[in-house]
Amino acid sequence: MKVLVAGGTGFIGSYLCRALADDGHAVTALSRSPEEAPEGVTGVSGDVTDYDSIASAVDGHDAVVNLVALSPLFEPDGGNRMHDRIHRGGTENLVRAAEDGGVDGFVQLSALGADPNGDTAYIRSKGEAEGIVRESELDWTIFRPSVVFGDGGEFVSFTKRLKGMFAPGVPLYPLPGGGKTRFQPIHVEDLVPMIAAAVTDDEHAGETYEVGGPEVLTLRQVTDLVYEAEKKGVTIVPLPMPLAKIGLSVLGAVPGFPMGADQYRSLKFDNTTADNDVGAFGADPAELTTLGEHLGIR
């Protein structure tokens, strides 16, 4: 197959491009940094917010995978309006280019909790993007993963960066709400084969899959694992959510500070699946990679 991966030089995209190329497919990585495309993958320049820059690259492919996304963990450069521009607007352009270019299959990487009426700009834009995909003429598949971890990912480093914001240079870690927010982290090398299967197997068309890893962890448990792996001691103390709200709302107005009120709101709801759909791809949740295994902790 001829497959175009939008965001093909990013964290998940690099893994997916390599996997598809290793399976014998002709893979094109659409990116603003095409020179970073993995070996054996064709890199092309394009910006999903500019239809004219992507239309010719999309034309003639059998399938398109949309992995272009901003992080929900940090406030993007340009503010929260960028979520709408990238997620909704970018998806709209990719879907239009795919329809105009004779593409059949379209795989959309969304997020758990995606909802046009959600509490954060990230969740709202992801929900609106899903609506665009579902209303298209394409054979679409939507994935809603929990946080994805692995070499090159940002989830592990996020916990350390969070401490640097709230308590730099001291062994205390004031974690918002005591770190009760729950996640279901999935390893990138467990997720990628599922996305690849959706690209190549028609039985997944028209389906939305919520996928997560083998265990549910609170942010506090994740933080403990990260510091244990580095053999560093840290004392976690609860930071009341009202104080976290005030702190992030005030600091979010400071130029260059990477978090804001939306990040506070995102810590108020869990990031876990209702029913883990990895079984649709022949995977046993119990056999997936745990965060501890990735960090070298048995």
Automatic annotation (TrEMBL):
The lineage's top-level taxon is Archaea
Cite the GO molecular-function annotations of the record.
protein-containing complex binding
Q: Which InterPro entries match?
A: ComplexI_NDUFA9_subunit (IPR051207), NAD(P)-bd_dom (IPR016040), NAD(P)-bd_dom_sf (IPR036291)
Domain named NAD(P)-binding: residues = 7-148
SUPFAM superfamilies (UniProt xref): NAD(P)-binding Rossmann-fold domains
What this protein is called in its record is NAD-dependent epimerase/dehydratase
Which species does this protein come from?
Halorubrum californiense DSM 19288
